[in-house]
Amino acid sequence: MSEAQQQHTDGSADGRDRRGTSPRTLADELRARDDASLAALLRARADLLSPVPADLTQLATRAGTRASIVRAVERLDAFTLQTAEALAVAPDPCDLDTLRSLLPDAGHALPGALDRLRRLALLWGPDDRLRLVRTARELLGPGRPGQGGSPTGLGPTLAEAVAGMSPGRLQEILSHTGLPGTHDPVSALDALTALFADRTAMEALLAQAPAESQEILGRLEWGPPYGTVEQRDGASRTGRADEGPVSAPIRWLLDRGLLVRSGPSTVVLPREVALHLRGGRAHRELRPVPPELTARRTHTVASVDGAAAGQALAANAVVEELLSSWEAEPPPVLRAGGLGVRELKRTAHALELPEPVAAFWVELAYAAGLVTADGEEDERFAPTPEYDDWLRAPEHLKWVRLVGAWLDGTRLPGLVGERDAKGRGYAALGPGLDRGPAPEIRRRTLELLAEPEPGTAPEPDSVLARLDWEKPLRGGASGELRRALADWTLKEAESLGVTGRGALAGYARPLLAPPEGEGAPAAAEALAPLLPEPLDHVLLQADLTAVAPGPLQRELADVLGSLADIESKGGATVYRFSPASVRRGLDAGRSAADIHAFLAAHARTPVPQPLTYLIDDVARRHGALRVGAASSYLRCDDDTLLAEILADKRGAQLRLRLLAPTVLASPAPPDQLLTRLREMGYAPAAESATGDVVVARAERHRAPERTPPRPVPDGPPLPDPALLEAAVRAVRAGDHAAAAGAGAVSPARGQRQAGFTGELPRTTAAETLATMQSAALSGGEVWIGYVNADGAASQRVLAPVRVEGGFVTGYDHTAEEVRTYPLHRITGVAELSGG
After folding, report:
1. Taking the domains of the chain in order of start, what are their residue ranges?
2. Which of 138, 333, 473, 652 lies at a 20 to 30 A Cα distance from 416?
């Protein structure tokens, strides 16, 4: 009989047995809970809400399904899980004293673990009859040969192990143990079970065992309980012929039931024997308390916040540098999606970062909605219009956007470069990087960093140990994903400026405060005073460099970036002027006078003479040569310069020829001619068909506006308080209806109690709304007339739980489910009296 069937058979309508004492089923216990407890259950196990259960019996049935049990068990801490594992191998039902004997070192932690299991509806019954939900018992109980038994390492009970054994064989086992024979297998099994439960008798029996037999038992004691026997021709042949010959030490154990055949070549250690060998313990080592966080070192709060704030500023700069390079040269999208290995290497080289770190910044920009594929035929990754807004924002707001995307994101850059189960590599910005548990584990890791005193940097190993204890099964594969995620979180948090010197920054703490999402403004406000004000000046030096002692104002940084190349980054940024960089500024339409004026306005030091000479020299030569389309031509008023170019062997591939004293022609396109001449050390300028100089500004590629990637949820979303309240009321109403019987929920019931004749009730819209709101507040039921979209009219009995936005949501007793109806389709409403 299934658990649901047992609930329907054993459970009574009021949630108590016939004597009115302890609950007989999980559904009965749920009926005895108050609304706050039911809401807590639905909040902790949100999968039970999809859809809202019709009544408490259906809720109990759904809470016992394997998928829901697995999800709930994955979220248990280590000791609560050990408690559930002990219950899975204990007698069913189990009393508290038996459970304490299985968990001898639990101390004061056991009541709390039992309370957590009860609140999650994994355990029910009073302390003298504790019952683990059947599916959880099957999940955590002993497995089959090859599966290693239960998580405790215990095998099946003696009764389960000898099931199918012949009565004669049982009598032989009794004889070898020194017990008198019995008349039936049941009494024989009872006698053996009593022997194995008697510690004195068992010690005497085991004292007679050969040393080799005791060694075999020692190997199976803590699991796995299954072993393979080697069958040999020269071995003892005592016992049944169909069991085959085995070695004498194993035969001694088989003859006394200390080992039992589980297959032609396998044996199993009965649970009672293993527990005796263990001294009654279900686990070798109990973990009743979480491991403490150990401090690696302690810093002053100011030094932590200062270091973290500096890194937050650097994080913004890295994302800006990344996307500024991509807007000029957008990398292509792979056919299978994502960024190619070569492009990632090129990006990492440009950022002067290792490839895994570059993949992190690429994924972060993507998660923040700052970059995406442009969707063109020749698809490329390019910044989005959101990037322009992000650039104009203050530094603290830019940082909050990046960190918010990181905290809630489910894509894992750490997987880039690894391979999936089919051997395909994971690519940055490609598919397959989402992992649902990521936000939860990431936030919990930061919450652990927030536990010690501010300024304290915990040992990373102690953080990982605490996470292992809190949810040992979370993350799959014995927590490998969880540990990797926690390790990545610690490193990424330091890179983002969430932590400084290994300790959580003070301004980052509001990000972890509930409710989620409301801490961002507070974090931004706390970070702002720690960031330096953008500077409006640079320091010019005689070696053709300019030093920016801090972050520059946006316009200043843009112009300076077009006139000079960044040579080094850090607390101060060093720009270097060169003929190529100055020519780049001239190509953008600035004159020499403009550049001199710009430097004079923004330099705190006099403009060095070498820099003045460099600008004037490049400007003097800039535009003396003019390139146009002919395929291309080159013209210059200085015929000596043209003769020099024509004689230069480096320009042989251009195939230049003299058309006139001041004009050279080439079959190469104008852009190639420009590039090659600049490589040869000249400073040509492009001109239009009318002879005007073409201003060459860098093209800024933008992808169409698109929403950032949505995190992949790990199960159903957490329900809000309003939904929880409505769900609890709906389940209560459904349970009340199920107890009252089908006649109590039919429209006829409503007509009899309200005195209606069967015609649809007619009320005004205001009366309908007022009656619905009153019923929702009081928990009452109403009789409604309803006309659907097809014009079909019907009568229904509804228990409203929420009225808002022109809709009413409640438990429809006619349909026996939670439904939502638009108020404008309700023709009228009448209250029903209770009963």
Report:
1. 3-140, 158-278, 295-530, 539-614, 626-686, 741-831
2. 473
| 114/120 Cα distance (integer angstroms) | 10
The CA distance from 475 to 184, in Å, is: 50
Between β-strands 782-787 and 685-686, what pairing exists: parallel, antiparallel or unpaired?
unpaired
3-state helix, strand, coil in the chain (%, to 5): 50, 15, 40
Rounded distance, CA 628 to CA 634, Å?
Answer: 7
Cis peptide before 151 (omega within 30 of 0): no
Spatial strand order of the sheet with 266-268 comes to: 226-228, 266-268, 260-263
Going by their DSSP bridges, the two strands 266-268 and 295-298 should be labelled as unpaired
Domain 741-831 has CATH 2.30.30.100: yes
Encode 746-783: b = buried (16+ Cβ within 10 Å), e = exposed: bbebbbebeebeeebbebeeeebbebbeebbeeebbbb
The greatest distance separating any two alpha carbons of the chain, rounded to the nearest whole angstrom, comes to 127
Q: What is the pTM of this model?
A: 0.74
Cα–Cα distance, 578 to 576 (Å, whole number): 6
| Pair of tokens at residue 779 | 């928990």
Confidence at residue 667, expressed as pLDDT on a 0 to 100 scale: 83
Q: Which of 345, 317, 321, 320 is nearest to 331 (CA)?
A: 345
Cα angle at 298 between 294 and 300, to 5 degrees? 150
Of the candidates 583, 590, 604, the residue with the CA atom closest to the CA atom of residue 541: 604
* Residue 344 confidence (pLDDT): 95
Report the distance separating Cα 128 and Cα 91, nearest Å: 12
DSSP-derived secondary structure for 580-607: HHHHHHHHTT--HHHHHHHHHHHBSSPP
Cα–Cα dist 275/58, whole Å: 38
Count how many Cα atoms sit within 13 Å of the Cα of residue 785 in the half-sphere of its side chain.
16
For 203-269, the DSSP string reads HHHHHTS-HHHHHHHHHHTTS--EEEPPP-TTSB--S-GGG--B-HHHHHHHHTTSSEEEETTEEE-
Residues 653 and 673: their CA atoms lie apart, in Å, by: 10
96/264 Cα distance (integer angstroms): 39
For residue 360, which of 505, 242, 185, 494 has the smallest C-alpha distance?
Answer: 494
CA–CA dist 302, 775 (Å, integer): 57
| 691 Cβ contact list (under 8 Å, min separation 6) | 626, 628
Q: How far apart are CA 830 and CA 753, in angstroms?
A: 11
Output phi, psi for 810, to 5 deg. Answer: -170, 180
Q: How far apart are CA 16 and CA 30, in angstroms?
A: 11
Strand partners, 382: 372
- 497 CB-near residues (< 8 Å, 6+ apart): 308, 309, 310, 311, 312, 313, 314, 315, 399, 505, 508
Q: CA 826, CA 766: separation in Å to the nearest integer?
A: 12
Exposed e or buried b per residue across 162-175, where buried means at least 16 C-beta atoms within 10 angstroms of its C-beta: beebeeebbbbbbe
8 Å CB contact between 239 and 176: no
Distance CA 606, CA 541 (A): 9
Amino acid sitting at position 387: Y
* Residues with pLDDT less than 70, the chain: 1-21, 143-150, 230-244, 475-479, 514-517, 571, 624-630, 689-699, 737-761, 816, 832-835
- Residue-wise pLDDT for 460-490, tens only, equals 999 999 999 998 887 554 468 888 999 999 9
